[in-house]
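[[Sequence with tokens]]
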Amino acid sequence: MSSPGVYLDLVLNLTLLVALSIVSGFIEKRVPRHFRTGQLMQGLLFGATAVIGMMRPLTLMPGLIIDGRSVMISLCALFFGPLSIAVAATLTIAYRIFLGGSGAITGALVTLSSVAIGLLARYRSKPEQRPPSAVGLYLLGIIVHLAMLALLLFTLPGGAGLGTVKHIALPVMLLYPLAMILAGKILSDQVEAERVVGALQEADWKFQALFEKGPIGVAYHEMIYDKAGKAVDYRFLDANASYLELTGVDPREQTVREAFPGIENDPADWIGTFAEVVRTGEQKRFEQYLQFNGRWYDCVAYRYKLGQFVVAFNNITERKQAEQALAQSNAQLKSKNRELEQVVYVASHDLRSPLVNIDGYSKEMAYALDDLTGAFSVESTSVEDLKRVAATPLREMSESLGYIRKSAAQMDALLSGLLKLSRSGRAALTIVPLDMDKLTEQVVSAIEFQIKEAGVDLVVETLPPCMGDEVQVGQVFSNLLGNALKFLDQARPGKIRMSGAIEDGRAVYCVEDNGIGIAAAHQSNIFEVFHRLNPEKSTGEGLGLAIVRQVLGRLGGEVRVESKLGVGSRFYAILPAVREKVQNEGRTVHE
């Protein structure tokens, strides 16, 4: 039977395992096991600890000692592999032989069996990929110490094996597998921690590579609130190189208002958008135009901790410009088709009417000429009779000729209008930044006499610049002002106001009057070719607004109207705004 002292001696001896595990973890952090130096150091540590254990063993008889080296050696083989266990086993066996005694050979064999079982367990379980469980460690402890007891039973000289096994079997099989679990879990936790740390380091390396070298702009921010809790700004905590490349700004150690002056007035409301992401914690993806540099961005924003958020984005300006160019081309194509339909209508209807008149009155002239010829064919007719007979045909011929000339003049006006519209649509465009204050001053100066004659109060506010062709844009505003003058309400003093603003990257100009206004039913037709609101009361060809729409369409803009009958009208001319950095002084466009 085992005495209580045996248990106490074994427990004290196995406490070395705890210290061993702690020191092993210390070495692992500084020299990891995947380096050869780390494997050698672990082998020296486990071998030295086994030697220390043999210095304070449980002595059963002279030359026969029991200690915890079987646990240490098998764990070293399991967790650190052949090189480490070769060093540890060599030290252990050498010292055990140095101690000598009847159990020296048995001690060496126990060490070798622990090495073999530990390595076999290593190759089967692959602890570096999947750390062993407590059950696995307990089974390893059972197998290692059953082998140890078998070696003691059959290799101790002088028949001492049976008595020795009877004396230590119970405490060994109770304590050593438990010690295997304790020390093994400490080591397996270290393996798992190393695996997790390695995975985190690899993920961090990948993230850093993506953050520093990736083509996507990334920035970390901290939201700034006022005393009322309203988001008023945000601070840049970090930004990658692509951020600078995609925005032209290095925002680090700045707030967004400092890095992008005026962004708080951007219609896109960047601060409010990101404040909502921080408040809700919901990821948001959106495409947005930045007024500061005139670029479009595809953004993804998400909150990564309280009060802080990340934005990743890419420059999609070229794609947006292509989309806008495609939309503009489609709009121009629709406009061309609409103009073609109107030309066909003019050719088939408006031109046909004067032709019918010419044909009809030509026939009337032919009839009158026949009557006149008949009168002259009578020989006995006196001069007075001829005058009397010819009076009616001559009058009819004169009237018919007048109608024919009037119809011809109408046809000439229609054809001249079509030619004018055609030339306007084919003129070369030189796109440059336009000083609209200077341009409108020239336009107003050209019609100053009509303005004074009409007694109109004309107010021209400061206008933002735009991109366009100077001649064509001047024609647009000349037509709009001329249209406002033409349709003034004679019952009240005329007022015309010109104003402008930048909205969503476009320059929006408004020509407002207090004229007679346009009924809702006519507002969709006023931009059509030869459409006149009051043909009987107004002059002109009905081309002014049609040319306005055509020119603005070619320049990438548009025109729209808001009007109320008896109150007045607002005509909006919309053109591309001038970017802060214009790449070229101007470009010429031919269509």
Remarks:
- The longest helix spans residues 160-213.
- Residues 466 and 577 are 4 Å apart (CA to CA).
- Residues 582-591 have pLDDT under 50 and may be disordered.
- The chain has four domains: 4-208, 217-315, 351-426, 429-589.
